[in-house]
Design goal:
single chain; alpha/beta; TIM Barrel; UDP-galactose 4-epimerase, domain 1; three-stranded mixed sheet
Length: 279
């Protein structure tokens, strides 16, 4: 695979899906990491402890909770940090550059810094906003907001539906980063940045979900109505990051505007709709 041009590998410690994210046991991860490390490449890991998550999921199911609280309750912080410690140790012992996909609690940063101080592991913290782009996950059950809205508008256009239903009021604001810009930032940071301070990655464009959906509707060419279901939650009212440190430390700034990124993502989806909706 390396000879064919593969530049990185992704694994999972949690059996999310047998096809997309099967659980890889630690002994196999270690063997893979040693091989990947020989070529100077990186391994990314979807880090959730399988046994802990499944136990927590069983408790949530037994409690009868099925609303928006269920996901967070099924993934207490220890499910993430336990897997993170495993991944860091496998990376440190194998000599493979390792990237943990999830670091949503402060203790995760503490673990990385402990490895930096004790073993000299050059761990850096990059915190991107929501990513999007071609080859995104367009499954309506598991996708993030941009691919979900693209698919909804595209399907509504194909079926000539009178309206598209959207959750909440649309007032919440978000910041998004095009996948190619994110990849460039990660490469630059890996090459040029070696400090313990966290670095935010974002586009600098903040947009409400309502205006985002209007842009997507326009680019897709759907002419029907948008109906907002205010009984559903909006989520966090605002998300927007200060990305000035990325520019100051390793000269990175996002190049792709949201509209251009949406246009490229929609173009890819329309050309690969059957594949995108089957994945």
């Amino acid at each position: 695979m390396v000879e064919a041009g593969v530049s990185a590998f992704k694994f999972s410690t949690f059996n999310t899906d047998l096809k997309r994210f099967p659980r890889i046991p630690p002994q196999d991860l270690y063997a893979c990491f040693k091989e990947i490390g020989r070529f100077g490449l990186a391994a990314g890991v979807h880090n959730e402890n399988d046994e802990m998550v499944r136990a927590a999921m069983a408790n949530v199911e037994a409690s009868g909770i099925t609303d928006y609280r269920a996901h967070a309750l099924s993934r207490p912080p220890v499910t993430e940090t336990l897997a993170m410690a495993e991944v860091y140790e496998l990376g440190a012992q194998s000599g493979c550059s390792t990237h943990v996909v999830h670091c949503s609690v402060g203790r995760g940063y503490d673990l990385c810094e402990a490895y930096r101080q004790q073993y000299g592991m050059n761990g850096i913290y990059l915190t991107p906003v929501n990513l999007y782009g071609p080859r995104d996950n367009f499954d309506l059950e598991t996708s993030h907001v941009i691919p979900a809205l693209i698919r909804k508008c595209w399907e509504a256009k194909q079926s000539r539906a009178a309206e598209v239903l959207a959750w909440g009021t649309g007032s919440a604001t978000r910041e998004f980063l095009y996948v190619e810009d994110a990849a460039e930032a990660m490469v630059l940071a890996a090459e040029k940045y070696a400090k313990p301070d966290l670095v935010n990655l974002g586009s600098g464009e903040e947009i409400s979900i309502r205006h985002l959906l209007e842009q997507i509707r326009s680019l897709v060419g759907y002419e029907g109505a948008i109906r907002w279901d205010a009984t559903k939650p909006d989520g966090q009212p605002r998300r927007c990051l200060d990305t000035s440190r990325a520019l100051a430390e390793f000269g990175w700034r996002a190049k792709t505007t949201l509209r251009d990124g949406l246009r490229e993502t929609i173009r890819w989806f329309e050309s690969n709709a059957k594949l995108a909706m089957r994945a």
